[in-house]
Amino acid sequence: MSDPVILIPARMAATRLPGKPLADIGGEPMIVHVWRRAIEAGIGPVVVATDEKAIVEAVEKAGGIAMMTRSDHPSGSDRIHEAVELFDPEGRHDVIVNVQGDLPTIDPKAIAASLPPLSDPSVDITTIAVEITRADERTNPNVVKPVMTPVGENRFRALYFTRSTAPSGDGPLYHHIGLYAYRRKALARFVTLPPSPLEKRERLEQLRALENGMRIDVALVDVVPLGVDSPDDLERARAVLAARARPH
């Protein structure tokens, strides 16, 4: 049995929506909504990892745990690795789930769906994806597509990730969601590896793991969560969460 911990990396330096972790949604900062969805997943403690005191204060005000980390991390993976070592130096938590800090509407069940593939000891990292139903997503380079082979019901082994339309031929395509569950040893190894050639070419960090022989499995979920990257996205997130809050 694994003992997971959820880490949420959050930083203020977004170019299209500066300060977005503290953007107000229904009277609370966005990072607090993400923290709540992670708590609702019910799989383990939740820790926000940041380099901004205001984010720590917002999370703690809501009753959560936040860790200050260095400001020079090149990626969220590096930030969560530092944070889990600070939070759990004894190594009790053997699985780290990385939930992006800009997914305030994510379904808690989608977070939990990342864990079952780790029951296979040959799997190093897991992630999630949704079958593409909109034609424009098939050719959109901002929609990352996993190329994968089935290994079980609603579960696949990733062979590649690409911004191109792939694989070719008849059959479904999938929309990758950037949520990962790492074995702790796999995360520790990953952050020591230099950026790989295909990672730099596709601008996809997960290719570093594949290029170094690590296995990534993918679980299918039902809905693509709304990632907040722009003012328009923020308004959509406000509308979604306001609708959820209304009595039915």
Task: Explain what you see.
This protein has 248 residues and is of the alpha/beta class. The strands form 2 sheets. It has a 9-stranded mixed sheet with strand order 5-4-1-6-10-7-11-9-8, with helices on both faces. The chain has a two-stranded antiparallel ribbon with strand order 2-3. A hairpin with a 2-residue loop joins strand 2 (24-25) and strand 3 (28-29). It has 2 domains: 1-106, Alpha-Beta Complex (Spore Coat Polysaccharide Biosynthesis Protein SpsA, Chain A); 107-178 and 201-224, Spore Coat Polysaccharide Biosynthesis Protein SpsA, Chain A, CATH 3.90.550. The protein is built from 9 helices and 11 strands. The protein has helices at 30-41, 53-61, 76-87, 108-112, 135-139, 184-190, 197-202, 206-211, 231-245, and strands at residues 4-10, 24-25, 28-29, 46-50, 65-68, 95-98, 125-131, 145-152, 155-162, 174-183, 216-220. The mean pLDDT is 95. Helices cover 31% and strands 25% of the residues.
